[in-house]
């Protein structure tokens, strides 16, 4: 598996992994009455949405377009990078308006069941910021000249990394539920205070990097 192909993809996976809303959501579920089943449903939905989006990105980047692969890939990266930058602006503005308030979606999932949490996980995985990062990660994998088997493996690794910050608290909960309650509650408070700053920074950095790489690809092609 080529490190050059996986580098940008793993970077995008980390961008998804540190999404404050998804981490806060799984923590909220772990503090709810149906913690075990609901948190597991969220993890499965979250990972499924990420894997699906990354697969679409890999397929799109693999289009040859009559020998104009560099143009297709460059345009794809520039468009996704620009949309990430727009999403960063939107996240910042929303964060300023919603300062001190918990997102409405989090209020609705306090008592989620497995199916409801599964749907919430998919919806969060394919909301614009995470969707764009997953598409970018899948695009990096698909454009690396890898075999189909390696692409499937790379997407699996990408999904595990992207879902790790949601998966780890759930696994820890099943191992030691009572000892996890206090640190989870503290982490939820910290995320609530710094939500918009984290999201905006991640989207801004990856938007700039992806746009620059797309422009360089077009220039080289």
Key terms for this structure?
84% helix, 221 residues
Strand content: under 5%
* Beginning-to-end CA distance, first to last residue: 24 Å
Number of helices, counting only DSSP H or I runs of 4 residues or more: 9
Determine the structural class based on helices, strands and strand pairing: mainly alpha
Low-confidence stretches: none
Average pLDDT value? 79
Q: Give the domain tally.
A: 1
| Main β sheet profile | none
Shape: globular
Overview of this structure, please?
It is a single chain. This protein is mainly alpha-helical and 221 residues long. It has one domain. It contains nine helices and no strands. Helix 2 (20-30) runs antiparallel to helix 9, helix 7 crosses helix 8 and helix 8 runs antiparallel to helix 9 (177-220). The two termini are 24 Å apart. The model has no long low-confidence stretch (mean pLDDT 79).
Topology:
Elements: H1 3-17, H2 20-30, H3 35-61, H4 69-97, H5 104-108, H6 114-125, H7 128-142, H8 148-175, H9 177-220
Helix pairs in contact: 1-7, 1-8, 2-3, 2-8, 2-9, 3-6, 3-7, 3-8, 4-7, 4-9, 7-8, 8-9
In summary, what is this structure?
This protein is an all-alpha fold and 221 residues long. It has nine helices and no strands. The chain has helices at 3-17, 20-30, 35-61, 69-97, 104-108, 114-125, 128-142, 148-175, 177-220.
